[in-house]
């Protein structure tokens, strides 16, 4: 869930951002992504072009308005879970929620637009890689490991790929469970936390 801004200035800024994003998406869906420019979005939203760019770094970012929110949700699935809640099930629950959000009837035209646009597909790919790196960093920090630990980066990539694959499946929710069944089995064998624990136990036995 998106954290709502509390101050008056923050609420106004968030409302302007949402208005721009909603306006852009409406124009893109009505006229085609390539046919609409930033100036048209700004004019329709009744803001300056500079205001658009103060909220969104690029035209592509207008389509992925919840990019930052999704990234934060993935990180919070690691950092905000209950003390004894296992890591992988917590991530599976969050991916279930994200897939539900992105596979509703209202989302279908947006994904059709993304698939049809090379620029949007490229932006989404870079976004997925960024999300995976942020998630890997959170997982590594949780396990008190270096951010570049291969196992943490691998788990993060698998989680992001699970979202993408499930979103495209005939039964998205069943696909999430199927993919995470494999992820959980692999993590149970290759988790750095498990290996470290086993190493300490072996050291204790040798003393």
Characterise the protein shown here.
By secondary structure, the chain is mainly alpha-helical. Helices cover 77% and strands 0% of the residues. The chain contains eleven helices and no strands. The chain has helices at residues 8-31, 38-45, 49-55, 59-63, 67-79, 87-102, 108-116, 118-142, 150-167, 172-190, 192-206. α1 crosses α2 (38-45), α6 (87-102) runs antiparallel to α10 (172-190) and α7 (108-116) crosses α8 (118-142). The model is unreliable at 195-207 (pLDDT under 50).
- For the secondary structure, the number of strands is 0
Alpha-carbon distance between the two ends: 50 Å
Sketch the major β-sheet: none
* Shape annotation: globular
H-E string? HHHHHHHHHHH
Which stretches are poorly predicted, pLDDT < 50 over at least 5 residues? 195-207
Q: Percent of residues in beta strands?
A: under 5%
CA-based gyration radius? 20 Å
Quaternary form? single chain
Number of helices, where a helix is a run of at least 4 consecutive DSSP H or I residues = 11
Helix content: over 70%
Q: How would you state the average pLDDT, rounded?
A: 88
**Which structural class is indicated by helix and strand composition?**
mainly alpha
